[in-house]
Each structure stands twice: as structure tokens, then as C-alpha cells.
Fold:
Amino acid sequence: MRFTVAYLLNSSQIGGANRSMLTLWNGLNGMSIEPLVYCPSSGPMVSLIENAGLPYHIYPYFQPSWKQPIKSYLKRRVWKRSFRSHNVSLVHANDLFNGRSVVLASHYLGIPLLCHVRFPPTKEYCLWAFKNLPKPDGFIFNSKALQREIGPFLQESCPESLQWVVYNGVDLSALKFNLDSKNIRPRVGIIANLQTVKGHEDFIHMASMLIRRGHDVVFDIIGGDIHQSGREEHLKRLSRDLGIAKRIYFHGNIKDVYATIQELDVAVCASHVEPFGRCIIEAMACGTAIVATHVGGIPEIVTNNENGLLVPPKKPESLANAVEFLLENREVRDQMALNGRDSVEKLFSKEAHVSAITDIYGKIHNHGSETEEPLAES
Structure:
């Protein structure tokens, strides 16, 4: 018997949250779960959904409001009609905002709703989001740090909702592990969309320091300005002002990000806020050494001096020192890369992620029944 799960993406752009969903859908292949994807607008993510062969709808999300009762009622009817016509058994929203958009419809139809929390909203939003509305059945956090940060506020506002921590996963079969660098000049990269909290300015200042110290290194910035905020031109201007523009390559959003990660000698995560750090486990899986900031959920992935190096946030000099150490100590770098791959295999594999998520599906879907049978493979 097929079990249809409606997935509400938080964006039509390709970011870590949506890449995590792609990994999940890939892992569900061959199981009794049938994904049905909703996207708020057209965009690059739609092409990936089509390539995955998944059914999808483009539905602009509308937040229910007591100040707009007629529009809220009409939008609820649209969601009800869609969920009912596709025989949806469970809704998995990739954000609190998405979950709030459909909570009236899912509650009316008696369909369980899960909200996946991947980035910290404000305390005020957590307390307000489902005020005077039905509550989600549960919240999934992608790190213990994120649950500690906002879990209590969601518990206060939704006391009956369950909470779980499920780490993101990667498909190890798609990530080639290779320690043999063929780069004549070492390559150091950052993999993140061009958002302020990702610390790209720190990365560029770090690059400037290393170049001034005499290191002949190529620096890669992998990720796009998904909000069209002018960040790319700002960062390019900074690199020109520092006189290092010829040594930094802006790749934008690229189709095969894994192939580029595999070419790096060191991957840097310079984030000021990072609930998890998907780019870190992807780089680890490829055999790339890691330098990351000690923020959010990153210490749940990186153990300092074992499978990577941790440094304080907003400290370009600390980033430069750590990268310099790895570039000058090949044996240490390789051992940390080996340890990193081992960490991913044990904790962050696609299989571990899918198993944890489907276990939650089974518990929520069967809530209140006498038995809780897992969602079996078809």
C-alpha cells in the first residue's frame, strides 16, 4: 500500500535545506512512501525535482490571518482539495513558515503535520507562529544545538507537539573519497550561498592573510546570491580592494557541486550562525580536510584536532592559522580527512537519515493505534 507524503519546500532555490530533501527522497526510492512535492515558485529547485522524476505542484504559500478571513478560508480550501485528491497521508514542511501555511487544511482533514526546523527563527516567531491555530504533530531539528536554542519556545507554544533531532545525511555512493590531490597550487574553498551569516568576508580576509604570508593558493567561493541582494558584487569588490581578486574564483550555483568539492584541499566553513553545516559532511565524505567555526551544531560534526579544526567565529586570523597548519602538514591533513569520512559513515549517511525520518513517520501516522508498525519496503 502506498503512503503519500506531501513535502513543502521552503524555497525554489537550491540550498542546504532543499539538498537535504533531495537526499531523503533518493533514500525513499523503493520504499512504500511516495513523495508529492510542493514548491512556492518556479526556480532551479524545480528542475532537480523533475530530474528526480517526482510529482510536484507550484503553490504560492499564504499565511492564515484572522484579518483576512475570506482569503484564509479560500487558501485552506485549495490545500484541502489538493491533499484530498492526492490521498496525502502526512505533511512534511521544510520550515515553520510552510507548516503554518497548511496547518488549517491538514488539521481539518486529520492529516499529521511535521515541521522540519533547519534554521533558528526568533523566540517571538516561535511563540506566535501557531498561536490561535491548530498545532503541528511534531518538530524535527537538524542538530541538538538548534533544539536547545528554540525547542523550549516551541514547547511552550505547542506543548503537545513532539520533538526529535535528526542529523542531515549524504549519499556516500555519490561522493568519491580521494586523498590524492592533483592540484599544483593548493585549493581552499567555502561552500555556502552568499548570505551574511556564512562569513564570506572572513574567508576573503583569511585568503588575503595567507597570500601575504607567501602561500600560493587558489581560493574557491562556491554558492550563489539566492536572494539577489548584491552580495556577489560586494564580495568581489572586497577582493579587489584587498588586491587578491585574481586568486579568488566565484563559481555561483553549480550543477555538480560534489565534483568541485572533491577538487579542494581544504574546505572552510566560516559561518557566524550554523545550526548544522551540510557542506561540512559533504566535504568530509569527499576526503577534504575541514576548518570550521565553533558555532551552533558544528561541534556535533567536527571534533577539534580529530576530524577537523575548530576556530572562533568572526576571526579571519584564526581561520588563516588553521588553514596554514593543514596546508603545511600533509600527514595531519590526510588523517583528519580519513577520520572525517569515518564520521560521516557512522553518523551522517543517507541510510541513517532515512531510517530516522521514516521511523518518525511511522510513529506519527500510527499515533493512537494499538500497534506502531514501521513503513515497510514495497
Notes: Residues 3-169+349-365 form a domain with the Rossmann fold fold (CATH 3.40.50.2000). The first helix runs from residue 16 to 28.
